[in-house]
Sequence to fold (552 residues):
Amino acid sequence: MLLNLLKPKFLLFAALFSVGFAANAIAQDPYHNQRQDWLKKAEDNKPQLSETDKYPVGLVKLEKDATAFQGWKASTVDSAGKLYNSSFKNQSGVIVDFGEHLTGYLTFTLKALKGTPDAPVRLKFTVGEVPSELALPFDPYKGELSRAWLQDEIVTVTTIPSPVTIPRRLAGRYVKIELLGTSSNFDFAIGSLEFKATTAVTAKPPLLASTTPKLIADIDRVGLNTLKECMQTVYEDGPKRDRRLWIGDLYLESLANQYSYQNNALTKRCFYLLAGLSDNDGILISNVFENPEPHAQAGSRLLDYCFLFNVALNEYVKATDDKQTGLDLWPVAKKQLDIARKYAGKDGMMDYIKAGKEWWVFFDWKDGLDKQASLQGITLYTLNQTYELAKLLGKEGDVSDIPALAKKLKSAAYKNLYNPKSGLFVSGANRQISYASQAWMVLSGVASKAQAQTALKAVTTVKDAVHPGAPYLYHYYVAALIESDLKNEAKEAVQNYWGGMVKKGADTFWEVYDPNDELKSPYGFYPVNSYCHAWSCTPVYFIRKYPEIFQR
Fold:
């Protein structure tokens, strides 16, 4: 009886608590009044994807080749016509080559050759970006990411003939088709096979100068293909995997886009999506999804990516003079500076140990990389870039403390991280020497031009220096070389690194590339690597922004 009397009061209290909690959460959300407008602007700038029908250019076989990327190459063995004109029962396991990397939807039909189709046909389609994906069995799967990212699809066809479209969007160049089951009472062939390729790219980039070396032109071509494939309804990091918008990829894609396809609406859409889906305390989430409706990956907070949002926004406003977007999103950029204020110690050094415990701090796919110097450098770089944005927007008064904080961090970095004897910047308790540390100390302005040149030249001679593990960090290394006026070294780095991928047959640039370990994977299984990855497209930016370096 007592419980029945108390129940209505308890329910009323719970309801009031819930309303109060929600109201408090809204009150604490610094963007409560702007989020819906930002998301609407993101939707308004959503591109209509162009679609192009692509068809096979031939049939290939896989061959082991120690000189080929990851030990496998695809050699042409027949024309595509054989696929359509011969019994598929005799072709199971055939590999179709579309001649280029494509992102989109695969459609096929079957046709009866003799007899009456009296049972379903079951086929397995496996799509690969590089030959090794089709050469290595996926199972037993030992990777750390979802097995479902691998592009193998089983399709059961119950009506012949009729078109069948695989529902899942796919990305790759090669398609392996295997027969899993059919009736012995009839024979059939593939009637048609086409790939409906999608991209947000509609414009052609300007031509390079006629004096451009062939290798540089090839690097630019592959970079453009990489960017085109990743430009969908957002800047995707990889059209095979992860198929979402990450801040770090947005920054590098937006730079390359600005000097090639110039789809500014897509860049703007991505900024507004990230802002509208930021955490309730105003801090950005590292990545967002579009479907079934736009949402962020809950809890994925990546410190250096938060900073790069500000850098990307500043670069965008400078390039486009779109100050309205800058003003709209200025509260977000301003808020990210609280991260710098929180972790900057009284001595001017960022507390990288505490930050590393409370945040995902990335910088590179490289085991053992000490990130103290990189964190100090990117923080200073972001402070300077954000203050530059503030001046463009007339908002210096909002961040009046930033020049003094930047000066303090710069002085501390020089005092604690620079070794005047070796001319190198060190990082962490073990005073590690890495390419990452040199790059970020240069880009942040800690090093003078002479010191920057010394450090970047010296690091290449240090036997145990930690090298970049992926094209992502290589971008910042090349940017540092250019910033230091080491033009020949910058050109050589692009030719050696991205040119190395081109020479190994890359149609698009890869997520991870270590010339000394082609099977390297951050995920424990190299076929799940992305072989068309946004952060690898940036030679397009370098080649086109600096023609005096790369186009002659």
Observations:
- The two ends are 91 Å apart (CA to CA).
- The longest strand covers residues 94-114.
- The chain has 18 helices and 14 strands.
